Amino acid sequence: MRLRILPKEEIPRMVQALMADYQVVGPKAKGPKFVFEPVADPSEMRLDYNITILSPKVVLQPPGERVATIRLEGKAPQVEPVVEVEPTVIFGAHTCDLHAIRLLDRAFSDEYPDGHYLERRRQTLIISVECLEPCDEHSFCKDMGALTVDEGYDLHLTDIGEAYTVHVGTEAGEAVLERYAAARAATDADVRRLNQVLSAKWPRFTHRLDFDAAELPAMLATAYEHPIWAELGERCLACGSCTNICPTCYCFNVLDSIALTQTEAVRTRRWDSCQLDEFARVAGGENFREARAARQRHRFFRKGKYLYERFGTLGCVGCGRCIRTCLVHINIVEVFNTIHSSA
Ligand code: SF4
Ligand code: SF4
Questions:
Q1: Where does a domain end: 204, 225, 250?
Q2: Does one domain contain both 300 and 238?
Q3: Which of helix, strand or coil describes residue 208?
Q4: Which residues are registered as beta bridge partners of 29?
Q5: Is residue 237 within 6 Å of ligand 1 at its C-beta?
Q6: pLDDT digits (tens, 9 = 90+) for 266-315
Q7: Which of 36, 58, 224, 298 is the 20 to 30 A CA-CA neighbour of 64?
Q8: How many domains would you assign to the chain?
């Protein structure tokens, strides 16, 4: 597809135009940090952000959503699905988060296609931005192969100074560019500038894993009884923050709330966390992953082995969010390097 050029001063106009037809969700400052939230004014959007607290997953799989209403009058309950979706543009997603969305796409369309996720995904356009600097010292996207992308977006922007280059990923992206933005065709000079910018970015990102991430599934296969799990289990507070902020974690719980009149119930689903004490508690009170050590092991196995075996892609994109958020400094890079060094 053709490469286009979008002058930077066009971005606010483009966002304003999109807002007439879509909910636009983009990176906004929140104190010293950044969050993906609906944009009320284009000036709120900060495409120069480093990393957001939560990924754009919040758009596609909200932390809490009503999924059905259940009428209890009559002989049998009547279940009416509820799909609360509106046309949305995710503006400014970074490359690691795009990789995470590709994993969510697979997870939610696999054996049991998830109508709520898939409808929201169908109505969501993604305009992403190429990362040119590491977010901070905790990023290890280069190790996880998430430093750049060639699919998964509708439009992909790269900052070349006064303007962005725009790669068009889909026909929907092409239509957005035609209708909402004043982009021009790229010249040879623009292409040269883009190549310079892209080749200059790679040395800025360093490797933090001491080994090739492709070794993770095999390495973990021999680490089920590793002493590190007991040590992590001692430290972990079972707060669930590391999974809640993770762009590739997608477990949820389903809850029914019955009205006092007992004529109607509302079914909701909310994010859940494998790190919570009660996550694996089942009927009869049995908890099949009761020890925190076992739950820590499960988290790291999921990132480095289980999702790879299921979907052919590792379950971590190296965003570093779990490292930044953990109150007891459990660090996925250190965990994997420790296991590797003792293998
Ligand atoms: S954020 Fe840290 S303390 Fe909290 S559940 Fe995760 S590993 Fe445990
Ligand atoms: S496991 Fe941690 S570093 Fe990997 S994708 Fe999840 S939050 Fe990011």
A1: 204
A2: yes
A3: coil
A4: 34
A5: yes
A6: 999 999 999 999 999 999 999 999 999 999 999 999 999 999 999 999 99
A7: 298
A8: 2
